[in-house]
UniProtKB/TrEMBL annotation:
<dbReference type="InterPro" id="IPR052171">
    <property type="entry name" value="NHEJ_LigD"/>
</dbReference>
<dbReference type="GO" id="GO:0003910">
    <property type="term" value="F:DNA ligase (ATP) activity"/>
</dbReference>
<dbReference type="InterPro" id="IPR033651">
    <property type="entry name" value="PaeLigD_Pol-like"/>
</dbReference>
<keyword id="KW-0436">Ligase</keyword>
<dbReference type="Pfam" id="PF21686">
    <property type="entry name" value="LigD_Prim-Pol"/>
</dbReference>
<protein>
    <submittedName>
        <fullName>Non-homologous end-joining DNA ligase</fullName>
        <ecNumber>6.5.1.1</ecNumber>
    </submittedName>
</protein>
<feature type="domain" description="DNA ligase D polymerase">
    <location>
        <begin position="31"/>
        <end position="284"/>
    </location>
</feature>
<dbReference type="InterPro" id="IPR014145">
    <property type="entry name" value="LigD_pol_dom"/>
</dbReference>
Amino acid sequence: MSAAEPSPAPDDQGVMLTHPDRVYWPDVGITKAGLADYYTAVWPRMAPFITDRPLALLRCPEGIGGTRFFQKNAWKGMNSHILALDDPHGDPHGHLIGIHDLGGLMGLVQGAALEIHPWGASCADLERPDQLVMDLDPGEDVGWVAVMAAAREVRARLEARGLVAFVKTSGGKGLHVVAPLEPVADWDRVKTFAHTLAQAMAADSPERFVTTVSKAKRHGRILLDYLRNQRGATSMAPYSARARATAPVSMPVAWAELDMLTGPAQFTLGNTVERLASQQADPWAGFHAARRPIAPDTP
């Protein structure tokens, strides 16, 4: 190591952060150490959504302006605090990625994981999802008010089927509506349920919604991405950073505050800790207690 290089910085989880001053978000000056500080601050709220479940990572070793790649499997040289998980239906020579504690999250930061995308199932039962995610992805010329209205419609349809719905910003273009599930239905059942719900919305309002990924069909409409609910698929973790300009995060919000939001990237690494400190209650505090099964007689 040359004299010009900063020494590795240990955090309080025993993980050495090499090059802690490396800038990951140059437009706002956020470094690797800054990302570690952020995740340490939000850990109590984020932990239940990312521990002990397979994770996919968006790694950006040079920051958001450099090379980026998705990492779904354990890699040679990964930090020892990161877990290599066995997948009974996966590559016998490969392992999924997981963490069990804050040290594991710091290991992900050391590995330049700027985004964290968990499975919809925990390691306790990889074959039965414990959440359903509807990703609302607006096409061009779709206003924010229309995205909020779509989220409320998804909520109403989920509640009509006996589920409880929570909402968060994506940190990208849209909103995610998430229903906690009792892990009793398998992947095919949950995917079919989500697909049927999305198809019904698109059939009722074809001028507003589509269920196909084709960009040619999405102009002026919102994609109801139900494919997050299949085995191996992932979605953005609550409180995860995004590898985008201004360093936005995916933020859980209360339904009552939806109208006060200015857009999907309103919350950032720079303002989230202040938001959490000023909140009287966690809007997703009841998430895990709200788990419901998908009823066998629902579509």
